[in-house]
Amino acid sequence: MAGRRGALIVLEGVDRAGKSTQSRKLVDALCAAGHCAELLRFPERSTEIGKLLSSYLEKKSEVEDHSVHLLFSANRWEHVLPHGWLPEAASRSALFLFSPVPAACSPERLPHLGLRDASGRTFRWLCLVPSHRPLIKEKLSQGITLVVDRYAFSGVAFTSAKENFSLDWCKQPDVGLPKPDLVVFLQLQLAEAAARGEFGRERYESSPFQQRALQCFQQLLGDSSLPWKTVDASRSIEDVHREIRVLSEGAIRAAAHRPLGQLWT
Q1: How many angstroms separate the CA atoms of 261 and 8, rounded?
Q2: PANTHER family from the entry (predicted)?
């Protein structure tokens, strides 16, 4: 039916909570039921920004904490912004992404998003690099439901789990992203998550850090303006899947004729 849009469904949780497994199963189930559905995972590691993030997460490179937070956000924005633009400063190299530029730069002349750090420097996202990837808004407007394995909430929780980062500061780069129609939080005891395969392989996979990230997630879960649903991820894969599928079917029906919102606005 004309006018129907797809739903934006996000799965969140601590590392090894089962997000990837459940995201894949949900897409398969929705497609089998006749829905148009696709999977998207963040960080999306195939882009130039994504490759840098992959190297960082695999502990092959080091990036300053403020900068890497902005890189994670840029990786999301590059799948949202109109074709022909990416949030980048004067270089394709992400080492120069978000380089400080004068705050007096005219917003009329250069599209940008601004973010001020603790020292008062203003970072602007200058749109200079062409993009040819399918975009979130385009897919949703075509009636395709997107199931997203991690979104801005992980970015905020994991950076604010570090020292000297406030939740509010961490949200700023992602303000205005497409607002999810459903955010499923997979609740799992950290001891159980740590016992699952390959825990500890990537940078943030340590129990103390995951505990701090979980506390930040709990703060985000308190935002009643967002459609959070908590699902007990300690159950069998099939039991968890069935609950997520029911929630997702409801979100798809509700989103069909509702305008797409903007996150944290």
Answers
A1: 10
A2: THYMIDYLATE KINASE (PTHR10344)
What is the pTM assigned to this prediction? Answer: 0.82
* Residue 107 within any structural domain of the chain: no
Measured CA distances, 154 to 111, 216, 228 (Å): 26, 9, 14
Q: Are 71 and 62 in contact (CB under 8 A)?
A: no
Report the 10 Å Cβ neighbour count for 167: 13
Whether residue 196 contacts residue 16, with contact meaning beta carbons closer than 8 Å, is answered with yes
Measure the CA–CA gap between 218 and 180, rounded to whole angstroms. Answer: 18
Residue-range definition of the domain harbouring residue 54: 8-85+132-258
Evaluate whether residue 77 is within a structural domain.
Answer: yes
- Give the start-end residues of each E strand in the chain: 8-12, 37-41, 114-116, 122-124, 145-149, 182-187, 228-232
215 is a domain residue: yes
212-to-157, 161, 217 alpha-carbon distances in Å? 8, 5, 9
Count H helices and E strands in the chain, helices first.
9, 7
The count of structural domains within the chain is: 1
CATH number of 76's domain? 3.40.50.300
- Report the candidate in 98, 87, 260, 128 with the shortest Cα–Cα distance to residue 181: 260
Q: At residue 92, does pLDDT exceed 60?
A: no
Q: Is residue 217 part of a domain?
A: yes
Q: What tens digit of pLDDT does each residue of 51-90 get? A: 999 999 999 999 999 999 999 999 999 998 655 444 433 2
Percent of residues, the chain, with pLDDT higher than 90: 70
